[in-house]
Amino acid sequence: MDAFQRWALFATASAVALVANWVALRQVDKSPDPAPDGGWRDLLRPVSVPLFGIAFVFGITSSIYISFAADHFSQRGLPGLPDGTTPAMVFILYGIFGLAGLVTGRARNLVGLLWLLRLLLVTGALSLAFTTLLAGSWPGLVLSAGLQGVNVMMLSAILAFWSERLFPDLPSLSFTTVLLAMAAGSVAGPVLAGIGSDTLSTAAMFLGASALPLATAAILPARMVQERPKAPGQPGMAQSVTEH
User: Fold this and answer.
1) Mean predicted confidence (pLDDT) in 145-168
2) Which of 83, 137, 154, 239 is deepest in the core (most CB within 10 A)?
3) How confident is the model at residue 242 (pLDDT cuts 50, 70, 90)?
4) Structural domains of the chain ordered from first start
5) Model confidence over 185-222: pLDDT tens digits?
């Protein structure tokens, strides 16, 4: 089966899944409560910038890792691992360490949303950096794939509950916007990474990609990171998560 046939197979499967879900969900009863009047306009607030900005950065970095890391490790090889099995090992470790997503809520309660976001952005940056700095070694593979698994699963959980808590009247619309920001990053990431690899080198591309989440963690505005909307009659901005 060539590349086009595989693409056609997955495209057909996606279309079938779309139709099946449409049939299954079209009879779902709508909420009896009227939808908020603002709609999309209600999402355009300064407080939403960190949410959607991190989703965009997350889409870039995670798509770069998925698209390039396994192949990079495979090219460098690993001692004691048969040829052709390195990509599988990358994603096995990715999945095992991704189970950390189950404790996202406890981690948020322990250190707060702001510091958990910063820690995960640094985690994602280290994962990308280790992909090239420690390539060809088992510690490099375990650290890179493991940290990426932790980053992806915990940050995905955060974006889900963060958007719902920040916009409780628009849970579906707010999370859809988060997914659109992630999708935009997922499209831009591999394109920019491919250009960087061809123009400079794969190592420079991974290091450059790692700088993006580091910069995001550094400039993340504490006063704007909150997960509750402004209460009626409350002056100023909603309570910052750093106060919890």
Assistant:
1) 94
2) 154
3) very low
4) 60-221 (1.20.1250.20)
5) 999 999 999 999 999 999 999 999 999 999 999 999 88
Kindly state the average pLDDT of the residues 126-147: 94
CA–CA separation, 6 and 9 (whole Å): 5
